[in-house]
Amino acid sequence: MSNCNSCPSNGSCSKDKSSCAVENNTMNNIKNVIGVMSGKGGVGKSTISALIAKNLSKKGYKVGVLDADITGPSIPRLLGIKNEKAKTSEQFIFPVETKDRIKVMSLNLLIENENEPVIWRGAMISNAVKQFWTDVLWEELDYLIIDMPPGTGDVPLTVMQSIPINGIVMISVPQDMVSMIVSKAVNMVRKMDIDIIGVVENMSYIQCPDCNKKIKIFDGEKNIEFLDKMNLNLLGELPMISSIGNISINGSITDKDTEKMFDSIVTNMINSMKEKESIMQ
Ligand SMILES: Nc1ncnc2c1ncn2[C@@H]1O[C@H](COP(=O)(O)OP(=O)(O)OP(=O)(O)O)[C@@H](O)[C@H]1O
């Protein structure tokens, strides 16, 4: 199945073919693969992966989400899939499609009871992620969003080695931004020769519901210095707000201001990818 012609990185890849560990499924034609990553857990990586997919789909793109967070799979719930299960044949695994036509693959769509924990060793988890790339029939997609496992361990490494990721969106919270945790994740991605599209600063501030004053809980200035030093592009900031925290219940961001902010983050992401693509050509 290994085939450079069907690889989303074809044309922008500097790897020697013999050292490439990526197996592509020739039945799929995926134009862009975006990994959503964070240095540590709980910062909003899955929530933002789901929201990026929804926004891209609303913009008219064909979108898929691969939930590579095998031991903490929250993508189906965030995208409103409650009871559906993925079907399989001898050759393929078929993704479940949401109401807004987003194709989704997650371990929770393959197991009987979503409350059962996945008590697997690292190698099994890595194999499941690889299969989500090689065996799932994604067909034609403009964007495949990968909700990466948190941190810089074995599974994120396997994802980066076995899936041709075009770029990473790094999620951080302001307190973390200046810490070595984000630096570690950024350096790992760069060592793997993968582009960092930019950073989304989540839970950046809260807003007073009465006077609309923005309240920054953490000191933000050092974050700008940090981004500069690391040569990172800030795609945007998001408040800590119930309309983001409740998307699995409401199905989408319910207030216009936050929706606008999110829309501009996704537009920045698309433009940044296009810019880098045109530089490489
Ligand atoms: N901007 C936000 N405002 C309010 N709540 C948020 C926001 N972003 C994320 N949350 C909430 O924070 C919690 C953690 O989010 P999420 O599960 O997306 O993080 P994660 O980084 O993917 O975690 P994990 O490492 O467990 O996969 C969730 O309860 C989510 O609803």
TrEMBL record:
InterPro entries: Mrp-like_CS, Mrp/NBP35_ATP-bd, NUBPL-like, P-loop_NTPase, YlxH/NBP35. GO terms for biological process: iron-sulfur cluster assembly. GO terms for molecular function: 4 iron, 4 sulfur cluster binding; ATP binding; ATP hydrolysis activity; ATP-dependent FeS chaperone activity; metal ion binding. ATP binds at G39, K40, G41, G42, V43, G44, K45, S46. Pfam families: ParA (PF10609). Keywords: ATP-binding, Hydrolase, Iron, Iron-sulfur, Metal-binding, Nucleotide-binding. Belongs to the Mrp/NBP35 ATP-binding proteins family. Homodimer. Binds and transfers iron-sulfur (Fe-S) clusters to target apoproteins. Can hydrolyze ATP. This is Iron-sulfur cluster carrier protein.
